[in-house]
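Bench log, entry 3. Co-assembly request; chain sequences pasted below exactly as received.
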Amino acid sequence: MIRDIGYLNIVKTGPGTSVQDSGRIGFTGFGVPTSGALDSRSFTWVNHLLKNKDSDAALEICQPGLKIQFDSPTLICLAGAKTDVKLNGKAIADHGIHAIYENDELEIGAFINGSVLYLGIKNGFQTEKIMDSRSWYIGISSNDYAEKGDLIPYFTTQELPRFTASKVKWDFSWALQPIIKVYPGPEWKLLDEKTRTLMEEMDFTISHLKDRMAIQLEETISHKPHEMATAPVFPGTVQLTSGGRLIVLMKDAQITGGYPRILQITDAGLSVLAQKRPKQRIRFQLKNVT
Amino acid sequence: MIPKLSQISPLLYEFEWNSEVSDKLLQQQLSFKAKLLHDFNPKIVDMRIGFKTLAIILSHPIEFTEIDNWLKSFDSEDSSYPLPEKIREIPVCYSLETGRDLEVLAQSKKITSAELISIHSAPLYRLHFYGFLPGFMYLNGLRKELHTDRKSVPDRIVPSGSVAIGGTQTGIYPSSSPGGWHLIGQTPISLFDPKQPIPVFASAGERIEFIPITVQEFDQLKRHPQKPKFK
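Structure output for the full assembly:
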């Protein structure tokens, strides 16, 4: 099959737009973060509806004010945050499949609920694969975040959308619940009884210090600082800093850290957390691993 | 010595050694890692090493007892490989232009900059693992005299190649990044190339030697990049 390349042109973007796939697996031995979609649940859903491979790259959008233009026909699929979406100036659904024709212009306006939107495309975006992944990460890929004028390649397709698939309901209620399920982390046992109870009973607030590397929570926990040798950390690891701050590591997090790792968020919980906004509150619910 | 096994999540396991950071422990960790990869590949999709830990992520859940039984039958004497002999030479220009905290740090230690440079460049440092940034080497062997608490307010930008001291450790920033370590010099060589199949030049267990160079040599090497030498 001959595939023609089309380009998505970034006409306008806020900060935080990037190409992400299922992650860069197998290079942590060189200190390379996993990266990949922050909310893997919504990301997986767009690829699933497009009948793409699970690992195909999508556009991750974290701010309102994105305007893009497609120079060739394709199919796209949206999922994730509830947003105002316009295709050629006309409001369209913020989830499901849409047919795209030559020179179509898509705009993402206000984020009504949630904080990450995925735009998947038939066969995935075709940006450069480095270390087995197309996920953008500073120092690995030539881009880290999209800028005005960037051209993002894809394979054009004339396929018509299957309307049965495009009508699949996107229920976003999972992302709105405050409960984040967690496993006890390697250093959980070093916390005293009172702190452990507090961790489960307290509400925590998402702070403005939130990016693809980590989310800092506003509340502090008083505890006896614990010196530890640098040890492995993962996306979803909750670190307790010496100042008592909680830092939740996200997909671009470093692969080792020196702070006690008190909790490990479940994969499903990490997708919920990725959709939270500053000032929103969460509560940890402990789960046994076995 | 047999590490302690904990299961953190359905796919995440961690082994922890209860002993001091040393060449001996590293040797055990690396031998353990080789045996683990040999016996469980391709079920292991990710492996990360810390100074006293080794964590794995599995592709599919396995019974805890399967890993636990494997661990119980592990013979640390039987599967022990010596650490590599290779020494990697990294040229470092120790100066105020390339390491802005050099003089202040020397003053705080009540030594001269020249003394600080000679204490820092004398030992061979052991590479334990990579972390923090792509290509950042965790090195063991910083002399006690140079241990220094991290800055209370981190620098917004540490230039790529900076050689720095933080806590009980020394390291090189492979790319520019925010950082809280004290900068004492800079290497002109590139430590990480994402386009290469193996993006770093040194392997865990090898040793690193810092070779002091002049500002002129630094500029020269910047213009005509070279790979680090080894012996």
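Chain B has a mean pLDDT of 94. Chain B touches chain A through 40 residues (CB under 8 Å).
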